[in-house]
Design a protein that fits this description.
- With 649 residues, this protein is an alpha/beta fold.
- It folds into 3 domains: 251 residues, TIM Barrel (Alpha-Beta Barrel); 187 residues, Class I glutamine amidotransferase (GATase) domain (Rossmann fold), CATH 3.40.50.880; 46 residues, Immunoglobulin-like (Sandwich), CATH 2.60.40.
- Helix 17 links the parallel strand 12 and strand 13.
- Helix 13 runs parallel beside helix 14 and helix 16 packs across helix 18.
- Helix content is 32%, strand content 19%.
- The longest helix has 29 residues.
- It has 18 helices and 27 strands.
- Bound molecules: beta-D-galactopyranose (GAL).
- Beta-D-galactopyranose binds next to loops.
- Beta-D-galactopyranose (GAL) binds next to loops.
């Protein structure tokens, strides 16, 4: 459990570097991430490298005993490179180039850009790969940030055609898979296929789904190119990439197979402001972040990293990029850091060492103010460092008893055909996760092809395309399983299954969806459960089944049912109903549950139980009486946390 910081020596006079490095070390920082946006300084002219400054920066950090995460600078190609290869730019869905002047101005499918990336990666890795202070690598920076996974450039179109030819072998097979006879969309040759943009009305959904799959693989192969070079030139170092929050446009499980560990960039206040949360939630958790936002991603990226993960960028104060950018409550930077460790993080790196007084992010806080005085975030990082030194190491996270199945493809399928405005797979998954966490359950977030052995409860928020192998693995695990609406509603090609939804699931859970409807907010559907009336959200399925209902719609239709501990939901339950559903399946799985006070969350790591308060007022620590606290005590103040020892799992 170590602390780190993101540092940009190229932004500051050399005279400051040695002092920066010694102050970092004194603050208790072990890792420093550098280089990810520095291409124009490393190679100011094509083929002319200036290593002097970076050599000095590396030596200065190393001399202070700091370890370095070296990055490839491929998120910010310099102007000369764009001039040399103007067709390396991505085109947006309207066909406009995504030009120079900020960052991420490249198309993953540009072969010319890939050659340049391989060249700069080779140069940086050859120079620093075996340096004793370089302990880890980050490829690029936040793949997909600023909406850059999907590009509609001629390069992408070419790549897509090759990808389609491999996938379908014959254009007849493609026409069948896409149902291209509809509206006379049939192709005579793969070369006739275009990306699914600039159509008069919506493009064919199977075409769009395949475009998502193609784009996802393009990001993974772009990353793999760099990883292969770094592995060759920098043996024994961990390679990671910094993923984002609430971002689903490529399959992170697939990409991370090439990495040693996952990392992600945690901005709890920015995410609360930018995503779907209600104004009440945005006000209530304004300075703490929603109780489940950071935890959800910690659990996701632990899964993506096959157990190994870092926070590569931790919000240290107000950010610059949300609609509104409040300052965290004093104590929250400390609490977020401990929360990450409680969920199994190996390292938490703060973004950034010092607020930079120029350019796009001048309004983004750092650990230090622009005048080099330690800011609130810096003070709290220092506090954590002192606490960590007393705390010692913790075992990695044990396997949780609950798994939540996270499918990037499911998210694409929903967004291709939401059928209701705002019906977002990611939000449905988040809602189910939050309900589990309100009951004090630890959760692993896993891929659909996971081994489910050992889980007592598996939640599949929705798997529109459900593989028989997933069903077999779930059956083999013996877990209680809950499937959300729209599961089994599509084949691999994106068609409605011949036996109707939920397709292959019917063999095990005999329900058939004979009709669906979507409803505007406020229009229900109403759901009756144990004598109370609740609301479903946006969606209602009509189930043909002889199974007994656990909840019904107001017309008597089945809203929730189960068969031998596999459950099916025919709507998206509002939070209060979801709490009851999750409590019921958890009890069926014999899991200990405890309704936590509003804003309180728990997480266990090894033999230590942590509790966190995200509410703006005091809470009680949900610890047994008389326990000896390692951190905190029986009261959880706002932004407070507590930790105590429990019997080993
Ligand atoms: C991240 C990005 C950083 C910085 C930060 C600001 O998305 O990786 O480079 O821009 O946001 O919060």
């Amino acid at each position: 459990m170590k602390l780190g910081v993101c540092y940009y020596p190229e932004h500051w006079p050399e005279a400051l570097w040695a002092d920066d490095a010694s102050r970092m070390a004194a603050l208790g920082i072990s890792w420093v991430r550098i280089g990810e946006f520095s291409w124009s300084r490393i190679e100011p002219e094509p083929g002319q490298f200036d290593w002097n400054w970076l050599d000095l920066a590396v030596e200065t950090l190393a001399a202070a005993g700091l370890k370095i995460v070296m990055c490839t600078p491929t998120a910010t190609p310099p102007k000369w490179l764009v001039e040399a290869h103007p067709d390396m730019l991505a085109l947006d869905a309207s066909g406009r180039p995504r030009g120079f002047g900020s960052r991420r101005h490249y198309c993953f499918s540009s072969e010319a850009y890939r050659v340049e990336c391989a060249r700069i990666t080779e140069a940086v890795a050859a120079r620093y790969g075996r340096h004793p202070a370089v302990g880890a690598w980050q490829t690029d920076n936040e793949f997909g940030c600023h909406d850059t996974t999907l590009s509609y450039s001629p390069n992408a179109a070419r790549g897509f055609r090759t990808w389609l030819a491999q996938r379908y072998q014959s254009v007849e097979a493609l026409n069948r898979a896409w149902g291209a006879v509809f509206w006379s969309q049939e192709y005579r040759d793969f070369d006739e296929v275009e990306p699914p943009n600039l159509t008069v009305t919506e493009a064919n959904p199977s075409h769009r789904l395949d475009y998502n799959r193609f784009a996802s693989e393009a990001v993974a192969s772009f990353n793999r190119l760099q990883v292969a070079i770094i592995r060759r030139l920098s043996p024994g170092r961990d390679i990671t990439h910094n993923f984002m929050g609430f971002y689903t446009e490529f399959d992170h499980f697939a990409l991370a197979r090439d990495l040693d560990l996952a990392s992600w960039d945690s901005y709890p206040l920015g995410f609360l402001e930018q995503f779907w949360f209600s104004s009440e939630e945005k006000l209530r958790y304004l300075r703490q972040g929603h109780p489940d936002i950071s935890a959800f991603h910690h659990d996701l990226y632990r899964g993506v990293g096959r157990g190994r993960w870092w926070v590569m960028e931790q919000q240290p104060g107000p950010v610059n990029w949300a609609r509104y950018n409040p300052a965290p409550l004093p104590g929250m930077v400390r609490s977020w850091t401990w929360e990450a460790f409680a969920h199994g993080a190996e390292v938490v790196c703060y973004f950034r060492w010092r607020q930079v007084p120029f350019a796009q992010e001048q309004m983004h806080a750092g650990l230090n103010r622009p005048d080099n005085v330690l800011d609130q975030g810096g003070l709290e990082a220092g506090e954590v460092a002192v606490e960590l030194a007393e705390f010692g190491e913790l075992a990695p996270c044990h396997r949780a008893r609950v798994a939540l199945v996270f499918s990037y493809e499911a998210d694409w399928q929903f967004s291709v055909q939401p059928h209701a405005e705002g019906f977002r797979w990611l939000q449905l998954a988040f809602d189910m996760y939050a309900a589990l966490r309100r009951l004090g359950l630890d959760v692993d977030i896993v891929a659909p092809d996971a081994d489910f052995t050992g889980y007592g409860l598996v939640i599949a928020p929705s798997l529109p395309i459900v593989e028989t192998a997933t069903l077999a693995a779930l059956e083999a695990s013996g877990a209680v399983v809950l499937f959300g609406p729209r599961t089994g509603s599509r084949t691999r090609d994106g068609h409605i299954p011949q036996n109707l939804p939920p397709g292959p699931l019917q063999a095990r859970l005999p329900v058939r969806v004979s009709r669906v409807e979507s409803l505007r907010p406020g229009a229900g559907p109403e759901v009756e459960h144990s004598g109370r009336t609740f609301a479903g959200r946006l969606w209602r399925e009509v189930l043909d089944t002889d199974l007994a209902p656990l909840a019904t719609f107001s017309d008597g239709g089945v809203a929730w049912t189960s068969c031998e501990s596999w459950h099916y939901l025919a709507t998206w339950p509002e939070a209060s109903l979801l709490d009851l559903v999750i409590a019921r399946v958890a009890l069926e799985a014999h899991l200990p549950i405890e309704a936590l006070e509003e804003g309180v969350r728990m997480r266990r790591r090894g033999d230590v139980q942590f509790a966190f308060n995200f509410a703006p007022d005091c809470r009680h620590t949900p610890a047994p009486a008389g326990v000896r606290f390692l951190i905190g005590g029986p009261e959880l103040p706002p932004a407070g946390l507590a930790a105590w020892r429990v019997a080993s799992p």
